[in-house]
Specification:
Number of helices: 11
Helix content: 40-55%
Oligomer: single chain
Strand content: 5-15%
Largest sheet: 5 strands, parallel
Order of helices and strands: EHEHEHEHEHHHHHHH
Structural class: alpha/beta
Distance between the termini: 35 Å
Strand order of the largest sheet: 2-1-3-4-5
Number of strands: 5
Shape: globular
Radius of gyration: 18 Å
């Protein structure tokens, strides 16, 4: 988009630059067409394929090798949650951004637990959707403070979730638990480094160790763990 600053590593003029490859998944042909037209006109992004239902996602991912998938939740045959879970279970899966028209739908939270890197509403401005794609491709999940907080506050903690989350935290070092809490508060790696007086490299190392120790897929699931454990 004109006037937008490109994140590091996404400068089209840089040597060896490769655009973020996007797969659009939605059962509404008009939505797919609109997203494809909008994203193909955004700097540093290329829509490489489309799928009309969740059952088409594996084949489309194999055919096009996307970096990011924009995933609808409600589809006739295989819903977006199931499609997300299946895709994230594969080796070296793409990042997934859920798109929905329902900002209070508990399915969104289920999708995050299934491995999605975040979610956006379908009425999100085009420039923000494009920026979200770049952000997720660069390793930063999309956690809208307004919507994420509303979802987390409205969804009751399932029986045993608190105890399970606290037990998981007990396997971490004190500094790793500090990082979990910071992520649960919606802080970026840079903000976490500043708040905890760490280097950015140290924060990234802690995040990597947390994901490995707890068998989690991404930072979004760390944030959900922090919520279940009562850290936020």
């Amino acid at each position: 988009m004109a006037g937008m600053t490109q994140p590091a590593g996404l400068d089209p003029s840089a040597s060896g630059f490769r655009p973020v490859r996007v797969l659009v998944v939605d059962d509404d042909a008009l939505v797919r067409a609109g997203l494809t037209m909008m994203l193909d006109g955004a700097a540093g992004i290329a829509v490489v394929g489309e799928a009309a239902d969740g059952d088409e996602v594996p084949a489309a991912a194999d055919a096009h090798g996307p970096d990011v998938v924009l995933m609808d939740l409600r589809m006739p045959r295989v819903d977006g949650i199931t499609a997300t879970r299946r895709l994230r279970a594969r080796p070296r899966p793409p990042e997934i951004i859920v798109l929905t028209t329902f900002d209070t739908d508990e399915n969104i939270l289920h999708a995050l637990r299934a491995g999605a890197s975040g979610f956006l509403l379908k009425d999100t401005p085009p420039a923000r959707i494009a920026e979200a794609v770049r952000q997720v491709a660069a390793g930063e999940p999309i956690l809208s403070p307004r919507i994420t907080r509303r979802l987390m506050d409205r969804v009751a903690v399932q029986a045993g979730a608190y105890a399970q989350a606290r037990a998981a935290l007990a396997t971490l070092s004190p500094r790793e638990r500090d990082v979990v809490a910071a992520i649960g508060q919606g802080r970026s790696n840079t903000e976490t480094a500043t708040a905890l007086d760490m280097t950015l490299a140290t924060v990234k190392s802690h995040v990597s160790h947390i994901l490995t120790k707890l068998a989690l897929d991404n930072r979004t699931q760390i944030a959900l763990l922090a919520h279940d454990a009562g850290l936020v």
